[in-house]
Amino acid sequence: MYVFLDRAMLDTLGYRDAALRRALQCCLVRVRRDRYTFTRRCEEEAHASLQRYAVDEGLTLAADQPGLLGDIERLRRGVAAIRGRQPVGSVLSHTAAALVHQLPLVTVREKAVELIVPGRSRRRNGLRVRDRRLPAGHVEENGGYRVTTPARTVADIARDHGLELAVPMLDLLLAREEDAEGGAASAMRRAVEAAASVYATPAARGSAAKVLAQADERRESPAESLCAVRFFQHALTGFEPQAEIRGGDGDLVARVDFLHRGARLIVEVDGLSKYTADGNDRDVSFRAEREREYALRNLGYMVVRLTWKDLFRAVPFERIRDALVQRERLAERDGLVTR
Predict the structure, then answer these.
(1) Residue 138 pLDDT level (bands cut at 50, 70, 90)
(2) Are 89 and 118 in contact (CB under 8 A)?
(3) Is the separation of the CB atoms in 218 and 241 below 8 Å?
(4) Is 331 helix (H, G, I), strand (E, B) or coil?
(5) Bigger pLDDT: 274 or 305?
(6) Deepest in the core among 100, 144, 200, 237, taking most CB within 10 A?
(7) 56 burial class (0-12, 13-18, 19+ CB within 10 angstroms)?
(8) 265-269 and 252-260: which strand pairing?
(9) How many CA atoms lie within 13 A of 37 on its CB side?
(10) Average of pLDDT values for 167-173?
(11) How far apart are CA 103 and CA 169, in angstroms?
């Protein structure tokens, strides 16, 4: 939980001009105009009156992190800073709404907090306001914010930020729906389509249709969803998500992230968390993964591993294309039967 101080409070505490500048160099950070929060707990005597507001054990400190994690955390701070101070008539949207709904962000292109205000459009003071039609059914209350519904959030992100952001979010929403209802994830698809139907142009409506066509609730992580988007962008077809591979005795050998059965080509999307997420020792998990890979290779499968960084590069997918062509030719020549 972030604690925010405004200029009036800081003035009352005696932090004006030079004193405020010193505090910003020590333990405060400016999130947006008139909103400041803590970067650390300090023991400077001159900041004792400030630190009274930083004693709560649940306090979240605004620590800088590199890369995507840092981008997400800065955006999260920006969203938190307007809680209770949301501009009149505004609705949190796009990536800001995604954070409220706990949807994944695989990249952060828009650093400002995004909102919709019908009849108004501007960019100022860390806010990106869009003028959009917003029916009442597209808005809900969540965590103290007025925010676009999950379906409208995905439709807006599809329209303004594209497949790579929208597909991982929709995959997660579909998986949540399937888990909750124990059946096919279809209501959310209809809701996203309906949310996009209010857009004025065919191109805007078509952006949601493209995301719906690429979404698949079987994928189990944002990295897998992003990988599937890259397959589409590189015209790589035939990859089945979360596919089971069995040995000659019918026993399950592995369930893999993506399998091209015709080429007997496996693509696994790795990350450090993959080897530690189950709570096991990293080395133990790594050895188990390697043994699993040897078993797959012994069955005649080729395994290609992608890191998170690979998902943002073209070369790994061009290499997959080359491998796919070669493997399909070999399979056709040898008459291999896929398992």
Answers:
(1) very high
(2) yes
(3) yes
(4) helix
(5) 305
(6) 100
(7) exposed
(8) antiparallel
(9) 20
(10) 97
(11) 6
Average pLDDT value for residue range 20-46: 92
At residue 286 the predicted structure's pLDDT band, cuts being 50, 70 and 90, is low
Using CA atoms, how far apart are residues 93 and 221, in angstroms rounded to an integer? Answer: 23
- Does residue 83 contact residue 147 with C-beta atoms inside 8 Å? no
Tokens of 323: 């491998």
**What pTM value is reported for the model?**
0.88
State the virtual CA torsion across 62, 310, 265, 289 in degrees, nearest 10.
Answer: -50
Structure tokens at 43: 């023991």
- Write the single-letter amino acid at 294: Y
Amino acid at residue number 292:
R
Region at 155 (left for phi over 0; alpha for psi -120 to 50; beta for the rest)? alpha
How far apart, in whole angstroms, are the C-alpha atoms of residue 338 and residue 328? Answer: 11
Distance CA 50, CA 37 (A): 10
C-alpha to C-alpha distance for 195 and 193, rounded to whole angstroms:
5
How confident is the model over 104-108, as a mean pLDDT?
95
Q: E-strand spans in 131-247?
A: 139-142, 145-148, 240-246
